[in-house]
Structures are given as structure tokens and as C-alpha cells.
Write a structure and sequence with these properties.
Layout: H1 6-30, H2 37-50, E1 54-55, E2 60-63, E3 66-68, E4 84-93, E5 96-105, H3 111-127, H4 134-147, E6 151-152, E7 158-162, E8 165-172, E9 188-191, E10 194-196, E11 202-204, E12 210-213, H5 222-231, E13 239-240, H6 241-244, H7 250-262, E14 266-269, E15 272-274, E16 280-282, E17 285-288, E18 294-295
Antiparallel strand pairs: 1-4, 2-4, 3-15, 4-5, 6-10, 7-8, 7-9, 9-17, 10-16, 11-15, 12-13, 12-14, 17-18
Helix pairs in contact: 1-2, 3-4, 5-7
Length: 298
């Protein structure tokens, strides 16, 4: 884990967290039955830019049994009605990242499940300090979620954050791994519990809308090269097909993306669904581990 030069970067990490918090609270005012999912995504990503940052990743709007990596397509016609919606927002400010998430229950039938993941974050925050082990965090999260009668998702986790990097070491587990690795001063981590009515595991599904550049390998196709030049503007952060579809015609764009994946330039992140199709809730905060822990996305 890269511990941070906090004196140098401190203000940027605080600012990223503040913007993420503001965007999260703004998003709560626009999520309601009858609204199109794509309109919510566009408004959230526009608000991030209005506040002087860029999306650290396409806003994740994952519903019901989907836990993560769902963002609307450019032609998405999904309208909110009674979904259990996870809203995962990432903000990048001068490379520093604020990552925060919450769950909205539009059905009015999953209050306990929503509370389980929220309480898991709250209880984890009570024990986190310099020297707390990753296993201890996982145990608190697991104990909290199971006390509500649900399961934590074991193959999703919290994570470290670094400049322009959303997922770095350490992996912050959502169950008791007995990992004795201790939190150190200067670490920046995201606590990210998922609670489910299912078995507690997720699997990849199909059609990834979210992608990320992983290599600058030479590209033979002229149009694919043109698309890749546009992708470089994301500075290594994940992006959506939807963002590129504002510049390129979708059929040719999809073909170019397929070529770039096969060529090893891009990695795709397909939607993640609970294996037993259990309902899923999620909450998340970004923390700076100092002598006194700072919740950057409070």
C-alpha cells in the first residue's frame, strides 16, 4: 500500500471527499419512481464536473440482485419504479479520489437489508484506527450483517485508494478473514460492505458497459486508434461506452472496443450479480487513516 504524503496531498483528498459527499446528497433528490436511469446517471456525472472534478468511474446504478458495475447504456430506457438501487459515486480531484455509496429502496420492502449494510459501515468506523487489522474490520462487518439475518458478499471488498487509482492494496474484507495486516498512518481506504438475502457471492454477467485502459500496445485499425486516443483523456480511470457514444457512432464504437479488448488495450468490467439472485444493499465511505481517522466522504 502506498502511504500518502499527506501534507502535500491532504487538501486534494479532502476536496475529493467533499465533492463526493455533495454529489451523493444531490443524487438523493433526483432518484424517484418515474425517472429514467440514464437521466440520473447524466445528472450525477454533470454535477461532479460542475463542482470542479471528474468522475473517478462511471456512476454505478445497480439494482436488485446486481451488486456493482451497472451503469446505463447510451440507449437505456430503464425507468425507476420499485427497484432496490445501489448508487456508487466516485469523484477524482487532482488525482485524489472520493468513493461513496448508498442504497435506495424504492419498493419500501427492504428497509432491514438497507440498514444492515449501513450499520456495518457505522460499526466498522467505530473500531478503525492505526493498528486495527483487516480481519477485525471484516469480522465487525460480517457480525453486523449476519445479526440482521443476511449474508455479507464475500467476494466483494473494500480497498485502498491512490492517485488516479480506484482499487489498490489493501483489500478490506467484508467477512472475518483473520488477516492480521494492520492499518497504518497515511493509508486511504474505502469501507464497502454489501449485504444480501442470497448466498453471499457474486458472479460476472454479460455486456460490460464499464471499461478501463490497461495497455498502450500498438493498434492496427485506424478507427480503433482514433477511439483509443479519446480513451486516453480518462487518464487511466474507468469509463463507459455511454461517454464515448457522444463522440462516435455506437455500432462502430462497439466494434472498436471489441478490437481493443482482444488486442489487450482495454479491460472490461461486467455487471456483478448475486449468485442466487438475492437482493443486495451497499454502503461505502472513504477514510484517511491518521492519529484521528478522518471520514472524507462524511
Amino acid at each position: 500500500m502506498n502511504k500518502h504524503d499527506i501534507q502535500k496531498e491532504y487538501n486534494d483528498w479532502v476536496k475529493a471527499g467533499e465533492i463526493a459527499s455533495k454529489v451523493r446528497e444531490f443524487s438523493k433528490t433526483i432518484i424517484k419512481p418515474g425517472v429514467k436511469l440514464i437521466d440520473i446517471a447524466d445528472q450525477i456525472e454533470l454535477k461532479i464536473k460542475e463542482l470542479g472534478a471528474v468522475p473517478a468511474f462511471p456512476v454505478n446504478l445497480s439494482h436488485d440482485s446486481f451488486a456493482a458495475h451497472c451503469t446505463p447504456t447510451s440507449k437505456d430506457e430503464t425507468v425507476l419504479n420499485n427497484q432496490l438501487l445501489k448508487v456508487d459515486i466516485g469523484v477524482c480531484y487532482n488525482g485524489a479520489i472520493g468513493d461513496t455509496a448508498y442504497t435506495v429502496d424504492l419498493s419500501g420492502t427492504h428497509a432491514k437489508l438497507v440498514e444492515a449494510s449501513k450499520k456495518a459501515v457505522d460499526n466498522a468506523l467505530k473500531i478503525i484506527k492505526v493498528g486495527t487489522t483487516l480481519g477485525e474490520i471484516g469480522k465487525v462487518i460480517e457480525d453486523t450483517i449476519t445479526s440482521y439475518g443476511f449474508q455479507p458478499i464475500r467476494n466483494l471488498s473494500g480497498h485502498g485508494l491512490d492517485l488516479f487509482k480506484i482499487h489498490t492494496a489493501p483489500t478490506v474484507p467484508n467477512y472475518d478473514t483473520k488477516d492480521s495486516t494492520m492499518l497504518e498512518k497515511g493509508m486511504i481506504i474505502a469501507i464497502e460492505p454489501f449485504a444480501t438475502t442470497g448466498g453471499g457471492r457474486i458472479r460476472d454477467t454479460t455486456h460490460a458497459e464499464i471499461l478501463m485502459k490497461i495497455s498502450d500496445k500498438p493498434i492496427r485499425d485506424v478507427f480503433a486508434r482514433k477511439v483509443f486516443e479519446e480513451i486516453k483523456a480518462f487518464e487511466g480511470l474507468p469509463f463507459s461506452r455511454r461517454a464515448l457514444a457522444k463522440t462516435f457512432p455506437l455500432p462502430r464504437l462497439n466494434l472498436a472496443i471489441r478490437q481493443l479488448i482482444l488486442n489487450g488495450n482495454l479491460q472490461e468490467y461486467p455487471p456483478l450479480q448475486e449468485v442466487n439472485l438475492g437482493m443486495v444493499s451497499q454502503h461505502e465511505h472513504t477514510l484517511l487513516i491518521e492519529d484521528e481517522v478522518i471520514v472524507l466522504t462524511r
